[in-house]
Protein backbone atom coordinates (compact mmCIF):
# COMPACT_ATOMS: atom_id res chain seq x y z
CA UNK A 1 0.00 0.00 0.00
CA UNK A 2 1.39 3.39 -0.97
CA UNK A 3 2.11 5.60 1.99
CA UNK A 4 0.00 8.72 1.62
CA UNK A 5 -1.01 11.14 4.32
CA UNK A 6 -2.56 13.92 2.28
CA UNK A 7 -5.56 15.26 4.14
CA UNK A 8 -9.00 14.46 2.75
CA UNK A 9 -10.29 17.74 4.14
CA UNK A 10 -10.91 20.55 1.59
CA UNK A 11 -7.84 22.74 1.09
CA UNK A 12 -7.25 25.84 -1.04
CA UNK A 13 -4.15 24.25 -2.53
CA UNK A 14 -4.59 20.68 -3.67
CA UNK A 15 -1.33 20.06 -5.49
CA UNK A 16 -0.02 16.65 -4.47
CA UNK A 17 3.12 16.42 -2.45
CA UNK A 18 5.66 14.14 -4.10
CA UNK A 19 5.24 10.53 -2.90
CA UNK A 20 8.85 10.25 -1.78
CA UNK A 21 8.46 13.42 0.29
CA UNK A 22 5.22 12.10 1.77
CA UNK A 23 6.96 8.90 2.85
CA UNK A 24 9.87 10.83 4.35
CA UNK A 25 7.45 13.14 6.17
CA UNK A 26 5.39 10.22 7.47
CA UNK A 27 8.44 8.42 8.83
CA UNK A 28 9.78 11.61 10.40
CA UNK A 29 6.43 12.33 12.07
CA UNK A 30 6.24 8.79 13.45
CA UNK A 31 9.75 9.09 14.89
CA UNK A 32 8.93 12.48 16.39
CA UNK A 33 5.89 11.13 18.25
CA UNK A 34 7.72 7.94 19.25
CA UNK A 35 10.63 9.86 20.75
CA UNK A 36 8.88 12.92 22.20
CA UNK A 37 5.14 12.26 22.39
CA UNK A 38 2.19 14.15 20.92
CA UNK A 39 2.58 17.10 23.27
CA UNK A 40 6.11 17.93 22.10
CA UNK A 41 5.45 17.30 18.39
CA UNK A 42 7.37 19.89 16.33
CA UNK A 43 6.81 20.59 12.64
CA UNK A 44 10.26 22.18 12.48
CA UNK A 45 11.97 18.97 13.61
CA UNK A 46 9.76 16.79 11.42
CA UNK A 47 10.46 18.91 8.33
CA UNK A 48 14.19 18.92 9.03
CA UNK A 49 14.25 15.15 9.53
CA UNK A 50 12.27 14.63 6.31
CA UNK A 51 14.59 16.90 4.35
CA UNK A 52 11.90 19.40 3.37
CA UNK A 53 11.17 22.97 4.38
CA UNK A 54 8.82 23.95 7.15
CA UNK A 55 7.02 26.21 4.69
CA UNK A 56 6.27 23.25 2.43
CA UNK A 57 4.63 21.41 5.33
CA UNK A 58 2.42 24.42 6.04
CA UNK A 59 1.55 24.58 2.35
CA UNK A 60 -0.42 21.35 2.78
CA UNK A 61 -1.34 21.34 6.49
CA UNK A 62 -2.71 24.25 8.48
CA UNK A 63 -0.93 23.32 11.69
CA UNK A 64 0.80 20.52 13.58
CA UNK A 65 -2.51 19.18 14.89
CA UNK A 66 -3.80 18.61 11.36
CA UNK A 67 -0.58 16.84 10.37
CA UNK A 68 -0.73 14.62 13.46
CA UNK A 69 -4.33 13.76 12.67
CA UNK A 70 -3.42 12.65 9.16
CA UNK A 71 -0.53 10.51 10.40
CA UNK A 72 -2.87 8.71 12.81
CA UNK A 73 -5.47 8.38 10.04
CA UNK A 74 -2.84 6.71 7.85
CA UNK A 75 -2.53 3.86 10.35
CA UNK A 76 -6.26 3.60 10.92
CA UNK A 77 -6.79 3.28 7.16
CA UNK A 78 -4.24 0.46 6.94
CA UNK A 79 -6.05 -1.47 9.69
CA UNK A 80 -9.41 -0.77 8.07
CA UNK A 81 -8.14 -2.10 4.74
CA UNK A 82 -6.89 -5.25 6.48
CA UNK A 83 -10.35 -5.91 7.92
CA UNK A 84 -11.98 -5.30 4.54
CA UNK A 85 -9.67 -7.86 2.91
CA UNK A 86 -10.60 -10.30 5.66
CA UNK A 87 -14.02 -10.79 4.11
CA UNK A 88 -17.37 -11.22 5.82
CA UNK A 89 -17.41 -13.99 8.45
CA UNK A 90 -20.28 -16.45 8.29
CA UNK A 91 -20.35 -17.78 11.85
CA UNK A 92 -18.81 -17.26 15.29
CA UNK A 93 -15.81 -19.43 14.46
CA UNK A 94 -14.82 -17.47 11.35
CA UNK A 95 -15.54 -14.21 13.20
CA UNK A 96 -13.00 -14.87 15.95
CA UNK A 97 -10.52 -16.44 13.55
CA UNK A 98 -10.64 -13.32 11.39
CA UNK A 99 -10.09 -10.99 14.33
CA UNK A 100 -7.18 -13.07 15.58
CA UNK A 101 -5.61 -13.14 12.11
CA UNK A 102 -5.96 -9.42 11.35
CA UNK A 103 -4.89 -8.29 14.82
CA UNK A 104 -1.96 -10.70 14.84
CA UNK A 105 -0.72 -9.51 11.46
CA UNK A 106 -1.10 -5.84 12.43
CA UNK A 107 0.72 -6.22 15.73
CA UNK A 108 3.57 -8.25 14.22
CA UNK A 109 3.98 -5.58 11.55
CA UNK A 110 4.24 -2.91 14.26
CA UNK A 111 6.61 -5.03 16.34
CA UNK A 112 8.99 -5.25 13.39
CA UNK A 113 9.34 -1.45 13.44
CA UNK A 114 10.26 -0.16 16.93
CA UNK A 115 9.34 3.45 16.13
CA UNK A 116 5.88 2.39 14.97
CA UNK A 117 5.36 0.38 18.13
CA UNK A 118 6.40 3.26 20.37
CA UNK A 119 4.25 5.64 18.30
CA UNK A 120 1.17 3.61 19.17
CA UNK A 121 2.09 3.38 22.84
CA UNK A 122 2.41 7.16 22.98
CA UNK A 123 -0.86 7.58 21.09
CA UNK A 124 -2.77 5.28 23.44
CA UNK A 125 -1.44 6.98 26.56
CA UNK A 126 -2.04 10.51 25.21
CA UNK A 127 -5.46 9.87 23.66
CA UNK A 128 -7.54 11.76 26.28
CA UNK A 129 -5.46 14.93 25.74
CA UNK A 130 -4.92 14.47 22.00
CA UNK A 131 -5.60 17.33 19.53
CA UNK A 132 -9.05 17.39 17.94
CA UNK A 133 -7.91 16.00 14.53
CA UNK A 134 -6.40 13.00 16.34
CA UNK A 135 -9.53 12.55 18.45
CA UNK A 136 -11.61 12.58 15.26
CA UNK A 137 -9.64 9.63 13.92
CA UNK A 138 -9.92 7.83 17.26
CA UNK A 139 -13.69 8.34 17.09
CA UNK A 140 -13.67 6.79 13.61
CA UNK A 141 -11.92 3.78 15.13
CA UNK A 142 -14.61 3.57 17.82
CA UNK A 143 -17.28 3.55 15.12
CA UNK A 144 -15.48 0.72 13.33
CA UNK A 145 -15.29 -1.23 16.59
CA UNK A 146 -19.02 -0.71 17.15
CA UNK A 147 -19.77 -2.20 13.73
CA UNK A 148 -17.48 -5.12 14.50
CA UNK A 149 -19.26 -5.79 17.80
CA UNK A 150 -22.68 -5.57 16.13
CA UNK A 151 -21.54 -8.04 13.48
CA UNK A 152 -20.35 -10.37 16.22
CA UNK A 153 -23.71 -10.19 17.96
CA UNK A 154 -25.53 -11.03 14.73
CA UNK A 155 -23.34 -14.12 14.35
CA UNK A 156 -23.74 -15.19 17.97
CA UNK A 157 -20.05 -14.55 18.65
CA UNK A 158 -20.38 -11.51 20.94
CA UNK A 159 -22.49 -11.45 24.09
CA UNK A 160 -25.89 -9.77 23.95
CA UNK A 161 -26.73 -9.73 27.66
CA UNK A 162 -25.31 -6.22 28.08
CA UNK A 163 -26.09 -2.94 26.30
CA UNK A 164 -23.99 -2.51 23.16
CA UNK A 165 -22.89 0.93 24.36
CA UNK A 166 -21.38 -0.63 27.49
CA UNK A 167 -19.68 -3.34 25.45
CA UNK A 168 -18.18 -0.69 23.19
CA UNK A 169 -16.82 1.38 26.08
CA UNK A 170 -15.40 -1.68 27.84
CA UNK A 171 -13.89 -3.21 24.71
CA UNK A 172 -12.32 0.04 23.52
CA UNK A 173 -10.76 0.71 26.92
CA UNK A 174 -9.63 -2.89 27.36
CA UNK A 175 -8.13 -3.04 23.88
CA UNK A 176 -6.18 0.16 24.48
CA UNK A 177 -4.87 -0.97 27.87
CA UNK A 178 -3.91 -4.43 26.66
CA UNK A 179 -2.24 -3.02 23.53
CA UNK A 180 -0.16 -0.65 25.66
CA UNK A 181 0.81 -3.58 27.90
CA UNK A 182 1.77 -5.73 24.91
CA UNK A 183 3.89 -2.93 23.43
CA UNK A 184 5.78 -2.51 26.70
CA UNK A 185 6.35 -6.26 26.88
CA UNK A 186 7.74 -6.45 23.35
CA UNK A 187 10.04 -3.53 24.12
CA UNK A 188 11.61 -5.63 26.90
CA UNK A 189 12.24 -8.57 24.59
CA UNK A 190 9.08 -10.66 25.07
CA UNK A 191 7.96 -12.48 21.92
CA UNK A 192 5.19 -10.68 20.07
CA UNK A 193 3.28 -13.95 19.58
CA UNK A 194 2.82 -14.52 23.30
CA UNK A 195 1.67 -10.92 23.79
CA UNK A 196 -0.83 -11.23 20.95
CA UNK A 197 -2.20 -14.44 22.43
CA UNK A 198 -2.61 -12.96 25.92
CA UNK A 199 -4.28 -9.80 24.63
CA UNK A 200 -6.74 -11.69 22.44
CA UNK A 201 -7.61 -14.14 25.22
CA UNK A 202 -8.39 -11.27 27.59
CA UNK A 203 -10.61 -9.38 25.16
CA UNK A 204 -12.36 -12.48 23.89
CA UNK A 205 -13.08 -13.86 27.36
CA UNK A 206 -14.69 -10.54 28.25
CA UNK A 207 -17.02 -10.06 25.29
CA UNK A 208 -17.62 -13.45 23.68
CA UNK A 209 -21.06 -15.01 23.85
CA UNK A 210 -21.60 -18.19 25.81
CA UNK A 211 -22.19 -21.21 23.53
CA UNK A 212 -25.84 -21.47 24.56
CA UNK A 213 -26.56 -17.74 24.45
CA UNK A 214 -29.28 -16.88 21.91
CA UNK A 215 -28.72 -14.05 19.46
CA UNK A 216 -30.50 -10.69 19.97
CA UNK A 217 -31.41 -11.18 23.62
CA UNK A 218 -30.12 -8.03 25.23
CA UNK A 219 -30.66 -7.59 28.95
CA UNK A 220 -32.66 -4.60 30.14
CA UNK A 221 -32.80 -3.00 33.58
CA UNK A 222 -30.07 -5.37 34.79
CA UNK A 223 -32.47 -8.30 34.49
CA UNK A 224 -29.63 -10.82 34.65
CA UNK A 225 -28.25 -9.34 37.84
CA UNK A 226 -30.04 -9.22 41.19
CA UNK A 227 -28.97 -5.64 41.71
CA UNK A 228 -32.39 -4.07 42.17
CA UNK A 229 -34.00 -6.67 44.41
CA UNK A 230 -32.64 -7.54 47.88
CA UNK A 231 -32.18 -11.24 48.56
CA UNK A 232 -34.60 -12.77 51.03
CA UNK A 233 -33.57 -14.71 54.10
CA UNK A 234 -34.91 -17.92 52.51
CA UNK A 235 -32.70 -17.35 49.45
CA UNK A 236 -29.66 -16.86 51.66
CA UNK A 237 -30.48 -20.02 53.63
CA UNK A 238 -30.99 -22.03 50.46
CA UNK A 239 -27.61 -20.84 49.16
CA UNK A 240 -26.00 -21.92 52.38
CA UNK A 241 -27.44 -25.43 52.10
CA UNK A 242 -26.50 -25.88 48.42
Explain the overall architecture.
This protein is mainly α and 242 residues long. It has a domain of 143 residues: Tetracycline Repressor, domain 2 (Orthogonal Bundle), CATH 1.10.357. Helix content is 67%, strand content 0%. It has ten helices and no strands. Helix 7 crosses helix 8. The protein is elongated, with a radius of gyration of 22 Å. The termini are far apart. 20% of the residues are buried.
Briefly, what is this?
The protein has helices spanning 19-36, 43-50, 54-60, 64-86, 92-111, 114-126, 132-154, 164-187, 192-207, 233-241. The chain is mostly helical and 242 residues long.
Architecture of the domain at 65-207, according to CATH? Orthogonal Bundle
Main sheet record: none
C-alpha-based Rg, rounded: 22 Å
The total of helices stands at 10
Distance between the termini: 61 Å
Number of strands: 0
Unreliable spans are 9-14, 215-233
Order of helices and strands: HHHHHHHHHH
Q: Using the alpha-carbon principal axes, give the shape.
A: elongated
Overall mean pLDDT score? 82
CATH C-level of the domain at 65-207? Mainly Alpha
Please name the CATH topology of the domain at 65-207: Tetracycline Repressor, domain 2
Q: Strand percentage, roughly? A: under 5%
Structural class, from secondary structure content?
mainly alpha
Helix content: 55-70%
Amino acid sequence: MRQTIMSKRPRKRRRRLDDSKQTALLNAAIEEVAERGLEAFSIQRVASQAGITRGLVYYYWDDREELMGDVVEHFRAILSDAFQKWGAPTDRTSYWLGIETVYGQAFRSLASKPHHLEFFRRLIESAPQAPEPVKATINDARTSMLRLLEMGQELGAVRTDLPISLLLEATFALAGASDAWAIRQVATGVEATSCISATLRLVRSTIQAAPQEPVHQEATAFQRFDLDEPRSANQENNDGRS
